[in-house]
Amino acid sequence: MQSNFYLKMALRNIRANKQLYLPYAISAVMTVAMLLQMLSLTSNDFVEVRSNDSLTMLFHFGVFVIGIFSFIFLLYANSFLIKKRKKEVGLYGILGLEKGHVARILWLESMIVGTGSILLGLVSGTILGQLVFLFLNYLLKLPIKMDYSVSFVNFGITAVVFAGIFLAAYLYNVSQVTFSNPIELLKGEKEGEKEPKSNIFLFLLGLIFLGSGYFISVTISDPLAALLKFFLAVFLVIIGTYLLFTAGSIFILKAMKKNKKLYYQPRAFISISGMLYRMKQNATGLANIAILSCMVIIAVGTTVALYYGVDDALQNRFPADHNATVYYDQEKTVDALQADIDKVENRVEVESADYGITDLESYLYANIFGGLSGNEFVVDDAMYQTIVMLSAEDFNAIEGTTLAPKANELYIHESGAYKADTLKLAGEDYAVQTFDGSFKNFEVEYLMGQSLLIVVENSKMIDKIMADYETREEGYAVSVTGNVQWNTDKSVDSEKAYAAALRPMLESEAIVNYQSIVETREDFYVMNGGFLFLGIYLGILFTIGTILITYFKQISEGYDDRSRFQIMQKVGLDKEMIRDTSRSQVVWMFMLPLIVATVHTIFAYPIVQKLLMVFGLTSHKILIISIAGVVLAFSLIYWVIYRLTARIYFSIVQ
Asked: Is the pTM of this model over 0.70?
């Protein structure tokens, strides 16, 4: 046969089946655009320059999730497409075309649709990304302008990924042709569907995966552990969600079917039977919707909390208007560092006479890095605990306490969860006393890791313990740090000028990192404003994905249910009852992903809250209000999506 015959056949098939190919092509274009925009975020200047490694890792993980989602969703959409065309493909065999000829036509169809979808997706993704960035820059009016990143490397990666997806879809289509005879293909959709089988093993496996992800989140101990385990928890929850939607839903519905009192009621009979077949066909799509919905809620909720929690984060990180951290890089002795602290404090007093200085305080503390081995603290690179140690004089002065440890004892804050009666430091056993209370100066540092906040008798005791660890261990085992803090009562502009003038003077006295809350507030708003921008952008991106899946799911269900509606009417079921039960099934199919996403968010709260402490946000109130507000807003958007797509479904069915 001439080669242009196959091309003409492929083009004719696409035009003849445009009602099927158009939603499929739109879905493909939008998923290409989604992956391209997610890749663009990983190479965004703000992400690369201003953010930390954890955010970069998060976006790369998002690329992986969107890639997997695109693969699953497009194969699901393709299976619907080839199922509707089985009769047509079978007719080719009856008319004398060999399977190789049919495979060649299908290959050209895949090439045309795939190449067109990839090219349109790259163009639309770039244009949409630029437009959304322009819109958000105008809407939010943040102190930093966010630019959309365009990279030919990202274009190449996106094209290769989707070329692989379309190749997999083509191989699936060819397998449907190869392993079926023309008569079977001619029957096409008329072939009765088998009732889905329940798989208790996959159901239990889904519960285990989901429970493990939830367990990691609710038992997370501190932000450092949250950073290490976050992606594992997300991966487990995603796998568990897919398994429970595909296997768990069938298992539960079959259990309901076995309940004769429940099942043999007209409405329950139709609803349970209909849901059983719906879940067989759409479980993967529903799982995708649940995961994307959860991503919207967490991405937008956390970034809103970060932006509106700037003052809370500043208050935690900076107890005073001005803070000078003093370091010592030679002999790690308390006396040497104290001399530098005194010089910095004197300079502050001299230079701040005209600025209404108040609450001038100074203290020093030591850090020992390692971990607990029984009741002994040892230096070990494989452990991630820290001792934060102060003298009773300094701690009582800055925190207003009255601790009075003796020479052979020390105080440990009870949040450290140290249960033994003694603690061995520097080869000596110390009796342990505990104390309670919140901190004005150490809350963020203390909560950031598996730290033990320890108060000892005096500075000589700190020196003795530090010296022993330094001589017995190699590497960076201990450090000693000083802090000078004070308030001023001038205007913002005056404090900026004051800070700019004071900084070089302090740096001339010692090794100092001087920060003012006025200057840092601007940096925080820039940084957290950037996070808010990216969070809203991701929310829009994932919402588009949710709309896309929902739209395609409603179309595929509409075509499948149209024949079922006709059969139910022929056997005498009332039209109104059929419509009501079908509507209840549609509502349940819509509500289930949102319910699952909300439950995921509730269980994700502990690990998300710990992660946000890395950015200084410790307020549960701000985070809860932000997430709850996003859940309500997204539920409203989701309801609008339901109303619009349900109309499409009922128009097809009726």
From this structure: yes
